[in-house]
Amino acid sequence: MFLYSKLLDLKKPIRVGFIGCGKFVSMFLSQFNQLQKIEIDTIVDIKPDQAKKNCKNSGLSETTIDKINFVTSLDQAINREIDIFIEATGNPIIGTVHATKIIKNKKHVILVNVEADVTCGKYLSDLAEKNNVICSMAYGDQPSLILEQIEWARLNGFHVTCAGKGTKYHPTFEYSTPDTVWGHYGLSKERAENESGMNPKMFNSFLCGDKSAIEMCAVSNAADLKCPSNGLTFPPIGVYDIAKKLIPKSEGGLIDYDGQVEVISSIDANKKDIPNDLRWGVYIVIKAQNQYVKNCFKDYGMVTDASGSYSAIWRPYHYIGLELAQSIYSIALENKATGKTRNYSADVASVAKKDLKAGEKLDGEGGFCARGRLTTSKHSKENKILPLGLTDGALVKKDIKKDQIITLNDVELNLPKEVIEAREYQYKLV
């Protein structure tokens, strides 16, 4: 809070390095010319020419681009004078390896890679604390924005009954693949991929529910909020009904627990848009602890449930990479994360999208083979469930039926030692 005034007094520039230069980072780069006291030292990308093109398309001058060190491996950048790395590959396995190396080299890391955070985040967070550096969630992504609202609520003495985000969800979307995704968005393949450079696998993860499960897992682990008993339910709810419906079932609402995460949909069962949707935004539900607070809710025009006890606060949009500077400045100016994993209480289970045959290779989040379902870490460990973050490249050892939960015994994994160590560390905490 009030970082800008501190920024004006900063004497030394903040040197940053990016790992991955896709859509999120490109959005940040489009703001760069207006940002103060940030220097881009290095961009790590397996396609440096494409990374340079993305820089140019984002509005960076040739002079600025020429000063950036473009490399293909973190090893080529880890020893440079970089204050903060931004891990934005989106790959949970590679991201965990990168974050581990960055932290052990006593440098801060911002995980745009929320996939790595939900797979190995508690390990990374504890490792960062041990090394006196910060492992932060990325401001602009919905988990960090939700946590900001939760922070406000708890700081001011409010109980958080429910927290989450909006999305466009329908049960039939769960079986969408990179081949079918654009039809659901009303886009052609040419328009989406060739003109806008949109990644079909990534955008499918938004559609099929993977990203929702991942992001709510991150919030659950950061804010100590419960998972719904059988995974996210995606009720179609407009903003003016949040406080009426996202309250415990015992109070006439829809949620299982007092203090849980949930995602709401912008369309109904007939795929019709609902009024006043929160497709791009985030919300929390708070509860009044006494009659005086209930009266205040009423006096100041807050939308409540029928009892007047519950009210909702929402932010209608998130600006993704356009807001990333908030995380950079928070670390540099206040040595604070914009959200971090504090527990390992939730996990994202893998569920077969289709009948899988022995010998097939799984293809990760947003792919053709598996989808994610939010669950508890206790359930995940006890049932040896394969986390969605470990599915990319996993070899199926025996036939698996469509809609069956995939277990660790069903697949052969070839994981780097950093990921193995991280998962073993987290299992011991359950």
The total domain count is 3
The strand line-up of the biggest sheet is 3-2-1-4-5-6
Rough outline: globular
| CATH architecture annotation name of the largest domain | 3-Layer(aba) Sandwich
Major beta sheet, specifics? 6 strands, parallel
Return residue spans where pLDDT drops below 50 for at least 5 consecutive residues: none
Roughly how many Å apart are the termini? 34 Å
Q: What structural category characterises the helix and strand content? A: alpha/beta
Give the strand content: 15-25%
Specify the number of helices.
Answer: 16
Radius of gyration: 21 Å
At the fourth level of CATH, the homologous superfamily of the largest domain is NAD(P)-binding Rossmann-like Domain
Helix and strand element order: HEHEHHEEHEHEHEHHHHHEEHEHEEHEEH
Return the CATH class of the largest domain. Alpha Beta
Number of strands: 14
Description:
With 430 residues, the protein is of the alpha/beta class. It folds into three domains: 3-140 and 324-334, NAD(P)-binding Rossmann-like Domain (Rossmann fold, 3-Layer(aba) Sandwich); 143-169 and 209-318, no CATH class; 346-427, Type Iii Antifreeze Protein Isoform Hplc 12, CATH 3.90.1210. Helix content is 35%, strand content 17%. The chain has helices at 3-8, 23-31, 48-57, 62-67, 92-104, 114-130, 142-155, 181-185, 189-195, 200-207, 210-223, 242-245, 291-299, 325-334, 377-382, 417-427; strands spanning 14-19, 38-44, 69-71, 84-87, 108-111, 135-137, 159-167, 260-265, 282-287, 310-315, 346-352, 370-376, 395-396, 411-412. α5 packs parallel to α6 (114-130), α6 (114-130) packs across α16 (417-427) and α7 runs parallel beside α11. The longest helix is centred in the N-terminal third of the chain and has 17 residues, at 114-130.
